[in-house]
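Checked the freezer inventory, then went back to the computational side. Two predictions to log before the end of the day. The first one is the construct we discussed on Monday; recording sequence and tokens without edits.
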Amino acid sequence: MALALLGLAVFAGAGAAHAVTVPMSLIDQDGREVPVGSIEVQATTYGVKLIPNLYGLPPGLHGFHVHEKPSCGPSQVNGKAVVGGAAGGHFDPAQTAQHLGPWGDGHLGDLPSLYVDAKGQATNAVVAPRLRSSDLKGRSLMIHAGGDNHADHPVALGGGGARIACGVLDS
């Protein structure tokens, strides 16, 4: 499933716009997708800026991460479908195995939480200061059902829970 066909070459070129738009979809255990808007990803001198233009999401704070694989499909764990499981875990090239948020020294794919308003819309930009655009090639963006406390306690991976929406950054 190729969701972002706009190519990531715009990140690398001198004088380029340094942005790409990633279509996002609600996902389920059967691999069905329902479009919910997009996220514009921009390379800046302060890290990667992610500008959501999303609708139809549950209101509140949501865990938001870069996942290691470019897929939004389900996977199987012990014979049970895992929604968005084909995206793998949080992007963690240094193999820290720690969820410490976007400012800590844990997963590089930990992003600031995504805020969804009472109308189900998300439009507030977030900045991931440790990420560079080259880190995103061949990865996915994932939105989780619940908020993220950017720690592994009391619940692993910030407590965000189920994966509900996803988009692919094609290589």
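The second is the one RB wanted added to the comparison set:
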Amino acid sequence: MSLSTRIYLSEIDQKFLSQLRAIDCACLGDFWSLEAYQREIENPSSLILGLTTENYELLGFGCLWSVLEEAHITVLAVRPEYQGQGLGKSLVWGLLKKARDRNLEWATLEVRESNHVAISLYESFGFKEIGRRPKYYEVTGEDALMLWCKGLHTEEFGAFLEQWHESISENLLAKGWNL
């Protein structure tokens, strides 16, 4: 019998600010400042969801904004040493679940056109490309693909969320994580 590490998917508060910034710098190249993350934590229309261990280590996080009926996913990042283990998938699942709990109807996001791993992840949840933002990323001049997922409020999507949760939990357990 193998031992697994217990992890938790929960809303992030102030005590994780320095870890949010560390992951941001490691994965996103200094995307948001400490003050920006502080504002996101305090904003009732925003939600930062994190994956943490019992020792309060933040493994990864995602952020969404509630705008009318839309859940706009603004950030998704997993510590480099934990990438490729299904943690990102659990974060996307959690963000979509929270969006559904807030009665939001669709989700949107932007992703680098070269980030094929992230694009594949989002497509596995039903996201479709609806457009492009030319030269969206200032540092590289790279375009952003605009992705969209509709029907979050439907019974069918709720059933998909349940199926995805079971599959994600099983895959994480096989990698040594107990969600």
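For RB: Residues 90 and 168 are 6 Å apart (CA to CA). The chain has one domain: 5-178. Let me know if you want it refolded.
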